[in-house]
Amino acid sequence: MSSLFKKSLVATSLSLLAVQAHSAGFQVSETSVSGLGRAFAGEAAIADNAAVGARNAAALTRFNTTAFSGGLTIIDPDVHADVTPGALPQGTTSKSAKDIAPTEYVPNIHIIQPIDDKLAVGFSAFSNFGLSTDYPKDFYAGSIAGSTELVTMNFNPNIAYKLNDQWSIGAGISAIYADAELKRQSGPLFAAVSALDSATDQTAKLTGDGWGFGWNIGTLWELDDNNRFGLTYRSQTDITLDGDYQGLSSKKKKVDGELELNLPEIIEFSGFHQLNQQFAVHYSAMYTGWDRFEELKATGSECTNNGVAGECFQKDEGWDNSWRYALGATYTMDEHWAFRAGYAYDESPVSAEKRTLSIPDSDRHWWSLGATYTANDNLSIDAGFAFLDGEQVGGNEELQSGKAATATDFSAGGDAYIYGLQLNYLF
After folding, report:
1. What is the value of pTM for the model shown?
2. Going by fewer Cβ within 10 Å, which terminus of the chain is more open, N or C?
């Protein structure tokens, strides 16, 4: 079942909705508003508030009192897609889809509790993946568009231990909940090669949810008071989404179905350097193991897809591993105000020859600004903004319906604006 869901989840997250703190793909990890303001450069090493618990468990040892951070990020994407199919069925004008990704809200919450001068524990709750897209019902390629909604939440307890004045280690586990809904329409493209009477007929609908579990480890090397480095690893996670599927491969009956969603491993290296009392620089390199994302396959005992019994949907993907690089700087003006800026380059895991309209991913550039207002020794507020500049990309995709097949050229792209506000408190 959920294969179709995942297909669409990818479908737009990639379209630039992938406004994540991690690499390109369908990942969304807005774990920190202070990090947003520096394009998430140095996140595994800075530890300027409790949100570091979502990036490097080892950094919990830098806190000597209870710390809390809670924030909200608003993602405002401007994503579009166009097809060039040549002659359209009579009366059809839906070759373009604009504003297909609505505004989304991503919360996060973190707490760190020192036990003594060496041991600390923490808990973070944040979103790993998520998106919401809505194509017009009569969009030409509606069978690979439609509407999609995916919501996830990662519940991540951590523990850290300070080995000596320079080295700390940490580890944690993640319980990730995912909930999704997907609808697909025929579209003139599919209707033209099938027996459907209407281009707006619904060809698939599915809903599903499930849990997956993973783990994370990290280390922090504090070379001295002004220089430190962080290295973290977050494991791959498999989530089995169980729910209902209704579509052509189930003869339009509602049946039980499932999909195993394979989330990639992530490795991040970060550095932080306080150059003088006012200026600091920070940087990160992040690797995401997308090569395990080989196919989208939904299964159900009552489905038959292209002659394959027990299969509701199948689509080859074959993504590549990718990197994300970020560089940022922080200027501390006085005891109340600090300002930051950052740039990041986010590689796409989808090669040009494998790009599809459902996953029109591209490389993207991040440009970020942020500020922190420190009201007193306990309370501070972060604000952040980022502009994601995505490349306009094109491709060609073939749609198969029984023995009939047709191909269409497409182009897709867009930008995204991200705003965030976060409160930090030391008890």
Report:
1. 0.83
2. C
Quote helix, strand, coil % in the chain, to nearest 5: 10, 60, 30
Interatomic CA distance for residues 271 and 274, integer angstroms:
10
Q: What is the DSSP string of 307-330?
A: TEEEEEEEEE-----EEEEEEEEE
**Most trustworthy range by pLDDT among 249-253, 291-295, 309-313, 371-375:** 371-375
Please report where in the chains the tokens 């080295």 appear, as a residue.
167
| Over residues 35-39, mean pLDDT | 95
Beta-carbon contacts of 246 under 8 Å, excluding residues fewer than 6 positions away, are: 204, 205, 206, 252, 253, 254, 255
Mean pLDDT of the chain: 81
Q: Which residue has the higher pLDDT, 296 or 275?
A: 275
Q: Which residue has the tokens 């560089």?
A: 327
Q: Which residues pair with 77 in a beta bridge?
A: 416
Q: Is 384 within the bounds of a domain? A: yes
> Is 303 a domain residue?
no
- pLDDT score for 7: 34
Give the CATH number of the domain where residue 140 resides: 2.40.160.60
Number of domains in the chain: 1
Q: pLDDT tens for residues 329-361? A: 999 999 999 999 999 998 887 766 666 655 666
